[in-house]
Every structure is written in C-alpha cells, then in structure tokens.
Design goal:
By secondary structure, the protein is α/β, with parallel strands linked by helices. It has eight helices and twelve strands.
Amino acid sequence: MTQTSDPAFFVTPQGRRIAYHLTDGAAPAVVFLGGFKSDMMGTKAVFLEEWARREGRAFLRFDYSGHGESDGAFTDGAIGDWFEDARAAIGLIAGKVVLVGSSMGGWISLLLARDMPERIAGLVTIAAAPDFTEDSMWAGFDDAQKAALETDGQVALPSEYGDPYIITKRLIAEGRDRLVLRDPLDLPLPTRFLQGTADADVDMSVALRLLDHASGPDMRLTLVDGADHRFSDETCLDLIQTSVVDVLQSLT
C-alpha cells in the first residue's frame, strides 16, 4: 500500500528543512536518492518502500532542498547542497546503509561513497548521471546559451517531464567541485549499475565510462534493452529489487 502519511522533517547543519519518510526495520537500511527535480513520491522510491515494508527492512526516502515537500527554491540549489542534504539524511540512521541512487541520485550516491565510506555498505545506481552538469549540460550548450548563463545567470532547457529546467550559473560552477569521473573512484563495496539502452537523458556510454573508471572488487553493470530513463516499468522495478536484494545478500 502506498505511503500517504505526512512526511517528517529535519533541519540540516546548513539550515535547510528537509522532508522525509523513514520506515523502521532491519539493518542495513536502504536509502533512496532521487533525481534532478524529482521527488520522493516517484514510482521507484514508493515501490522500494513497499518492498522494504514487506521484508521488514529499514528504508529512507527524502526530498532534497528545493524538491518535493522540502523547503527552498529549486533554482537556489546545486549538487553540493543536495549532497549535503543526503549526508544529513543518512545521519538519521544508525549504522551502515545501502544506497539506491537514481540519475542525479547516482552521482550523489557516488559522492557519499567517496566521502563517508565507513557508512556505505552497498550501492545500486539506476541510470546514474555522474558529472552531468559538466559533461551533458555545459558541454551541450551552444555559444548563445553559454553567453546567456554568464549575463543572465541562468538558461532554460526544455524537459519532456514538464516545465523547462532552469539551469543556473551556480549549478554549473559548483558542480565542477563535485566531479567524480576525473579522479580515482574507489568503490570497495558491492555495487550494481543499472542502465537502459533507450535512455534519452543519460547515454549508455555514461554507464560504460563509470564502470571502466571506478575500481572495486564487486561491480556489475546490467543493461536493459529498450528501457528508458524512467526505468519504472514492471521489468525494471523487478530488476531494481533484485539488485538491492543481491547487494544485501552479499553482505551476509
């Protein structure tokens, strides 16, 4: 049954008020990290929460600042802010956690694994988008868009998910301090990368680059033929669940 109760809130060390749902259960807890301009009511987050409830597994989903039910304006945020939100959210849980990061959440989960390896027991990414502000947005801007970013402080990008994305100069500049594909990326934990071959937002080459760049004793990439960026049909949801279970079983 879908979670419909009101969220709880906490305040990060930076003063941002974050909405979350935390389900009690067995450790290690599973933590879902959503994507760019998405929220914790998305299909994948709710699906995993329902699975966790059935299994008696602790589970956390939350909204970054400027997303969903959390306070703040989306256009005020940047990758580092949302990373700090995620790190503070993990502070609600005792012990190690298994991260499930979707799209931008995949990038943030990699930042967390690098920043606090003692807390991260395992990792599943779904269409992970590491370094997308630099490699996808900035690299894809034409001269007029780059000029507009400098003069106006922002540029609008079309989105097939609703209103245009407002991309700020700070988002691009701050993202350069959070890149994970330029320096060694050690993942000494069970890691499962999931990627659709028909993803129009994150090209399959990104998943291959991530697999090649990262190092770790137990990393696997699964490609799903024809799956898009949402990765939310029955087959994809089953694969996400299977991957989380696989990671958890590898820890025992």
